[in-house]
Amino acid sequence: MNTLILPTIPMAFAFALPVLSQVLKGNRKFVNAYAIIVTGLTFVLSLDVFRTAYSSEKPLIYTFGGWNAPIGIIYEVDKFGALFALTTSFLMFIITFYSIRYLERETGVEWYYTLYLGLEAGLLGIFLTGDAFNLFVMLEVTAVAAYGLVMFYTEEGYPAYSGVRYAIISSIGTTFYFLALGLLYYGFGTVNFADLAAKARGYPFPVSEVAGNFLMTFALAMALITWAFTIKSAIVPNHFWLPGAHSSAPSPISAVLSGLVVNAGIYGLARFTWLFTGISEFENAVNVVSTIMIGLGAVSALLASLAMTAHDDVKRIVAYSTILHMGYLAMAVGLRTEIGTKAMIFHMLNHSLGKALLFLAVGIFIHEAGSRKLQDLAGLGKRMPLTTVSLAIATISLVGLPPTNVFFSKLVLYYAYLEKSVALVVVLVLSSVFALVSYMKMLYWLWIKKTENNTEVKEPKSMVAVLLLLAVLCLAIGILSPLIIEKVIDPATVQALDVDGYIQAAINVLGGK
């Protein structure tokens, strides 16, 4: 079996789960085992995709139904896409173990895992596809699953409100993206990534021809694409849906949304920017997009870090932290330099792990205490030492203190920003200081604050095991950063920026070479 079709694995099993659950009368043990097996299988297959991609000098190609691009849909997997497919499947796999214990008192878990597997399928498709329209489809798959998961607590009013608002705003984003696809097809006669890049560079590409004046349509299409993906990645001013949606969802889903789903917007922005970089005819439009991304990213980082200090709801504090880090990534995308791309890829990876750890750690406190308010969690840290240590490692990591993983990706961000402007470095430092203040406040309430809170709490072993695994990873990646940058990040950066190689890989398949 060609493992490049791995998004179809969780999708197929997602459709089968409700039927099997009905046949087995909602047997909870079966549903839990089913979710573990499917996410585990997907993780194993993604490991194979990752290994194959990193052992190949060119992107991997899979044509659906034997229809070649640009007529058919293809998956074109470079090292960048393979890395985040692996990151996605790994986090979804281990969060499944966490979810089983977290949802032990909930009903309807078969629907939870149906949406969960659909969400995984959508995310994997986003990172693996080589077709802009298929990217739209996978964005929709991801979004629909995410809406349902945000509203999982149906008996509570606010999750429903947050989920509906999330759905409306996200739908506006995908509508903008769909309109952009229409413009691109009108101008270029294709929506295949490699074909778009080839047409923009004046390269011959089999089958399709330029349909119209692509210079006229490109600027408007890029404006719509930029706005669409700033919604998906919660960049200011399109950030306002995220704190409510991410804090209302069950904590394991909050970890997935903040650690993985928001990556889709950054990935889309980066992919389209790379396709049209270095072409004189498009340089003005791309420069405008880059300037906008740097400006909005800087504002996002500063405003989100300030907002973190104003809240006493632990999940909202962590949710605003996500907007902060999306700001860093947007600035890195806007740089359009090799070191900026390296910083973006490395920080995107590190943020995914660190943010998942932080939301999962906070989730255990909420699970045991039944509240998200710092005042209600006061003093619980001393009675939950492993959870508190894991939370501390997550906060130290996300602030960017050594020897954690984010310290090293922030160091690369620092040098990338410094090449552009000292002002960007000031944004990085100031926002990190504000975030540190917020995290210190959180740890103060959990560990130092004296309280008469006698709530009986415990540390569920399966949930804590997931925390400890992620905490060790955050430290290990930090300690081994030079090796990881050399072996993983640098190759992904080089191939991501090699648009000619991306084009040639698709042409070779068309030519049967």
TrEMBL record:
Membrane-traversing stretches: 31-50, 81-100, 112-129, 166-188, 210-231, 252-276, 288-310, 317-337, 343-366, 386-402, 422-444, 464-485
Pfam family, one: Proton_antipo_M
Membrane topology summary: Multi-pass membrane protein
Keyword Translocase: no
Superkingdom of this protein's organism: Archaea
GO molecular function: NADH dehydrogenase (ubiquinone) activity
Domain NADH:quinone oxidoreductase/Mrp antiporter transmembrane: 131-434
Coiled coil: none
Chief place where the protein resides: membrane
Biological processes, Gene Ontology terms: ATP synthesis coupled electron transport
Keywords (A to Z) from UniProt: Cell membrane, Membrane, Transmembrane, Transmembrane helix
Cellular compartments annotated: Cell membrane
One annotated Gene Ontology cellular component of this protein: plasma membrane
InterPro entries: CPA3_Na-H_Antiporter_D (IPR050586), NADH_UbQ_OxRdtase (IPR003918), ND/Mrp_TM (IPR001750)
Name the record gives this protein: Cation:proton antiporter
Species per Swiss-Prot/TrEMBL record: Thermococcus litoralis (strain ATCC 51850 / DSM 5473 / JCM 8560 / NS-C)
